[in-house]
């Protein structure tokens, strides 16, 4: 979903980092554009007879406080591997949130016999409501999954996952790459940090970001093959790259997840991946994007079932 919210001081030529005044001015410009309670919490309420829905924190942000929820199996089996699915780390990436919810509504119970599936469908509810990549303090939660995190959203999720006291075997983090990455986010990033940001080629289609240190190529392949049944895979550019990174196979690039403080890196899972859907594609609808996220989760779980 495109972010049309205005931003303060987003000229790439700006060479002075934002201070508190500029961050406050940016925050004052943000407006509520949709409802977390209606779109997310209400759907979770309807799942209470099928799963444990636990509040793991609250994000204070005037005039509202945002409750944070994690979904767990009704019966936890220590003998089963645990899978973590996260959505809405970047609140503006709509299909990540709705893909996580749709998976819970349509598919999660089909895998309950094999896994303990844990889902945090909307990690950044303020970002969801205001259609923002950043949190209210102009911090990117998906660069903040590290010790002493400056982002409350990231810190709360890490604490909640640690409280499970179990190994996370696979972590599937649901994201989007949108046209507004170039028109809104990167100009805002340039202004905030006082560093010019080059625009990147927005790939038309679905792709994955694996972990440089732990690429688990076959796992990524299984997800790509599953998503192909729903929507198209992003082609690489003329240099064999996607968003500036070389592909390792069709539709897959790798990042150093832990070093960059990415969500899919903090769990130290054996099988990490980050999905990237392109909602602005003329070849895909919003429904296609949600289905692609669900297909990605299924592709990863089917691989793990087959492997064992």
Automatic annotation (TrEMBL):
<dbReference type="GO" id="GO:0004181">
    <property type="term" value="F:metallocarboxypeptidase activity"/>
</dbReference>
<feature type="domain" description="Peptidase M14">
    <location>
        <begin position="32"/>
        <end position="308"/>
    </location>
</feature>
<keyword id="KW-0121">Carboxypeptidase</keyword>
<protein>
    <submittedName>
        <fullName>M14 family metallocarboxypeptidase</fullName>
    </submittedName>
</protein>
<dbReference type="Pfam" id="PF00246">
    <property type="entry name" value="Peptidase_M14"/>
</dbReference>
<keyword id="KW-0645">Protease</keyword>
<dbReference type="GO" id="GO:0006508">
    <property type="term" value="P:proteolysis"/>
</dbReference>
<dbReference type="GO" id="GO:0008270">
    <property type="term" value="F:zinc ion binding"/>
</dbReference>
<comment type="similarity">
    <text>Belongs to the peptidase M14 family.</text>
</comment>
<dbReference type="InterPro" id="IPR000834">
    <property type="entry name" value="Peptidase_M14"/>
</dbReference>
<keyword id="KW-0378">Hydrolase</keyword>
């Amino acid at each position: 979903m495109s972010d049309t919210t205005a931003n303060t001081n987003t000229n790439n030529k700006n060479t002075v980092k934002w201070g508190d005044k500029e961050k406050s001015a940016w925050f004052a410009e943000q407006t509520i554009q949709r409802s977390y309670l209606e779109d997310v919490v209400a759907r979770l309420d309807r799942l209470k007879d099928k799963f444990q829905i636990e509040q793991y924190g609250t994000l204070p942000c005037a005039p509202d406080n945002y409750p944070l929820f994690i979904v767990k199996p009704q019966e936890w089996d220590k003998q089963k591997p645990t899978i973590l699915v996260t959505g809405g780390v970047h609140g503006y990436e709509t299909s990540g949130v709705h893909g996580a919810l749709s998976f819970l509504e349509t598919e999660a119970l089909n895998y309950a016999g094999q896994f303990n599936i844990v889902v945090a469908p909307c990690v950044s509810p303020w970002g969801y409501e205001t259609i923002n990549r950043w949190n209210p303090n102009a911090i990117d939660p998906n660069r903040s999954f590290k010790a002493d995190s400056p982002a409350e959203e990231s810190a709360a999720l890490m604490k909640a996952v640690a409280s499970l006291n179990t190994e996370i075997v696979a972590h599937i983090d649901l994201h989007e790459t949108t046209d507004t990455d170039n028109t809104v986010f990167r100009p805002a990033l340039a202004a905030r940090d006082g560093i010019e940001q080059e625009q990147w080629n927005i790939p038309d289609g679905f792709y994955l970001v694996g972990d440089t240190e732990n690429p688990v190529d076959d796992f990524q392949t299984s997800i790509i093959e599953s998503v192909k049944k729903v929507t198209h895979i992003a082609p690489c550019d003329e240099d064999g790259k996607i968003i500036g990174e070389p592909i390792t196979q069709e539709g897959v690039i790798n990042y150093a997840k832990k070093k960059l403080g990415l969500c899919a890196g903090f769990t130290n899972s054996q099988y990490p991946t980050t999905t990237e859907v392109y909602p602005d594609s003329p070849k895909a609808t919003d429904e296609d994007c949600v289905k692609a996220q669900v297909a990605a989760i299924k592709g990863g779980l089917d691989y793990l079932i087959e492997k064992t």
